[in-house]
Design goal:
Rossmann fold; Glu_race; four-stranded parallel β-sheet; Glutamate racemase; isomerase; six-stranded parallel β-sheet; glutamate racemase activity; 10 strands; alpha/beta
Length: 268
């Protein structure tokens, strides 16, 4: 048994989709969430900057004595997995479990990947999928406007702005005839309804936050690292920008309200 909390981080609030899944599968576990809202999005940054930010984010969680770290961020998962692998606690990211889920889900062997510019340019999902089965075809599509849309609460498929942006990005993916689409950024599940409408019936959407949460939960259970029964659960949420709008937007991700605390971390 291990009563320490699980640490989760993201460039902003998208990682809350993974927190939502963790709350479902591990309702008794304590959590520490860090959202780098002062520097969101990461997906348009250089690889060097992303890696520096990721190291700072991981260090922040380690200072909170977490027992595991989940990079609930497709961009960090694609650019800084080696940094996570050197942590003194187990590290999890979204790429490998999501790739496995997509490979299992596809029937026509054609998979679309939606992600930030950095994630798509890294080729991380294509590599992970083709390591599973090199005959699978992968069709990546960068969707850089999805993060600012969700961070500002624009998620309804009835919103004209949402519809236009989603249709613009998904046109080539739909044209490729995929039957499975990876939501390769944890912000993107908030746009699931709009994405589903744009792709049409019969296309399976793979939620990267959900797959990462399930992988983490399974690993902790297998190694006996879950908290002892009857322990009081706690959940702490930290952001690097003013938290005034945090509760409103966080409720869209989690389905319930939470309070955020603004923190300063060392930007060296």
């Amino acid at each position: 048994m291990d009563n320490r909390p699980i640490g989760v981080f993201d460039s902003g609030l998208g990682g809350l989709t993974a927190v939502k899944e963790l709350e479902k599968v591990l309702p008794g576990e304590s959590l520490v969430y860090f959202g780098d809202t002062g520097r969101v999005p990461y997906g348009t940054r250089s690889r060097e900057v992303i890696r520096r930010y990721a190291k700072q984010d991981m260090d922040f969680l380690l200072r909170h004595k977490v027992k595991a770290v989940l990079a609930a961020c497709g961009t960090v998962s694609s650019a800084a997995a080696d940094i996570g692998a050197r942590l003194p606690v187990p590290y999890f990211d979204v790429v490998a479990p999501t790739a496995r889920a997509a490979a299992l889900a596809t029937k026509n062997r054609r998979i679309g990947v939606l992600g930030t510019s950095a994630t798509i340019h890294s080729g991380s999902y294509t590599k992970a999928i083709q390591q599973i089965d090199e005959s699978l075809e992968v069709f990546p599509q960068a969707c850089p406007l999805f993060v600012p849309l969700t961070e500002n609460g624009f998620i309804s498929p009835e919103e004209e702005l949402v519809r236009i942006v989603v249709e613009r990005y998904l046109e080539p993916v739909r044209g490729a005839g995929v039957d499975t689409v990876i939501l390769g950024c944890t912000h993107y599940p908030l746009l699931s309804e709009a994405i589903g409408r744009a792709m049409g019936p019969g296309v399976t959407l793979i939620n990267s936050g959900e797959e990462a949460a399930l992988a983490l939960a399974g690993a902790l259970e297998k190694t006996g690292a879950l908290c002892a029964p009857g322990q009081g659960r706690s959940a702490e949420f930290y952001v690097t920008d003013a938290p005034e709008n945090f509760s409103t937007v966080a409720e869209l991700f989690l389905g319930h309200s939470v309070e955020g605390t603004r923190v300063d971390i060392t930007f060296d």
